[in-house]
Write a structure and sequence with these properties.
Elements (H helix, E strand, L loop, with lengths): L1 H58 L4 H10 L9 E3 L17 E7 L6 H11 L4 E4 L5 H12 L3 E4 L6 H4 L3 H19 L5 E2 L14 H10 L3 E2 L4 E2 L10 H12 L4 E7 L5 H16 L3 E2 L12 E3 L2
Parallel strand pairs: 2-3, 2-8, 2-9, 3-4, 5-6, 7-8
Antiparallel strand pairs: 1-10
Helix pairs in contact: 3-9, 8-9
């Protein structure tokens, strides 16, 4: 009888130990899972914030003076005394007063695309000239688009060849190689020696591993003028703006400036930009604005510039 009781007690103790081990294992797994979840959530939040900042920089929806100040102040020990914050024509000087003529420059980044001819058709319908900051594409349709841009009196400008940030901004040598490639492509295709450039992400981007002043100084030395923007349509963001909202975004800001450089995009995904263009042109014309292509007389709008 005692042996039986002893056996029962032993089995009960063993059962309790097994239950305790299982309970401890479950608690451990849950604890580890919760800690990992918190860590992963924090990492993802940091990534989202970082990506949003980069998107804001690229689309112009940021405090320009603050971002430029931060970029210069964080420069790694280099002498930045010759860096001019703001624009060659200061934001204050460019501020419109009652009665001022509003000059508006519609600029299209990232083309040619399957929408380029549609955009050119719309511009032709309204007798409007614009500026196309193109990237490097050597298929037959793209080469024809470069030529049409020039033939119809628009300004063709450079937006890098590859548009791959990791390549373009990896070093000054890589930047120079990319610049020469797009410059040569445009010249060989159209006969135009292009003198205008827009940095992928803008001159105040936070993507480049090299101080942007190195690239800016190089462009200055080559006699190439680069343009940023002071009005963003919002078509570069992940937010799905309607065509009407793109027009509203532009019209809300162009009234503030004597010279407005409007950021738009010519890419396959930007169908809403094409849809918005006629209404945008009509709204600008009704407001009394003059729509022009960038040329040597255009007020230079830059987020960061280096004195020559």
């Amino acid at each position: 009888m005692k042996e039986q009781e002893h056996k029962v007690l032993k089995e009960e103790r063993d059962r309790r130990k097994r239950v305790q081990h299982i309970r401890t294992g479950i608690i451990t797994v849950i604890s580890v899972w919760m800690i990992l979840s918190i860590v992963i959530t924090c990492i993802l939040c940091a990534k989202v914030i970082s990506l949003q900042k980069q998107i804001n920089i690229m689309t112009g929806s940021y405090d320009q003076s603050a971002s430029v100040d931060q970029q210069v102040n964080q420069s790694s020990g280099e002498d930045t005394a010759d860096v001019v914050l703001g624009q060659p024509t200061t934001a204050e000087d460019n501020r419109a007063s009652e009665g001022d003529l509003h000059k508006v420059y519609l600029t299209f980044d990232d083309g040619p695309s399957e929408h380029t001819n549609e955009i050119l058709d719309i511009l032709d319908d309204y007798g409007i000239k614009a500026t196309f900051f193109v990237v490097g594409k050597e298929d037959e349709a793209s080469l024809a688009a470069y030529q049409r841009i020039v033939d119809e009196g628009h300004t063709i400008a450079m937006h890098s060849y590859s548009h791959k940030y990791s390549d373009i901004y990896s070093s000054l040598d890589a930047f120079q190689t990319d610049l020469e490639r797009i410059q040569n492509l445009i010249y060989d295709t159209t006969g135009v020696e292009c003198r205008y450039y827009r940095f992928p992400g803008g001159s105040s981007n936070k993507v480049s591993n090299t101080d942007m002043s190195a690239y800016i100084s190089y462009l200055n030395a080559q006699g190439i003028t680069y343009y940023d923007w002071n009005v963003s349509s919002g078509d570069a963001t992940t937010q799905a703006f309607t065509a009407d909202e793109l027009v509203e975004n532009v019209m809300a800001d162009v009234v503030k400036y004597k010279t407005s450089i409007v950021l738009l995009h010519d890419s396959t995904a930007k169908t809403t930009t094409v849809q918005a263009l006629p209404a945008m042109i009509e709204a600008l014309q009704q407001s009394g604005a003059v729509i022009l292509p960038i040329d040597e007389d255009t007020t230079v709008i830059q987020h960061v510039c280096i004195q020559q």
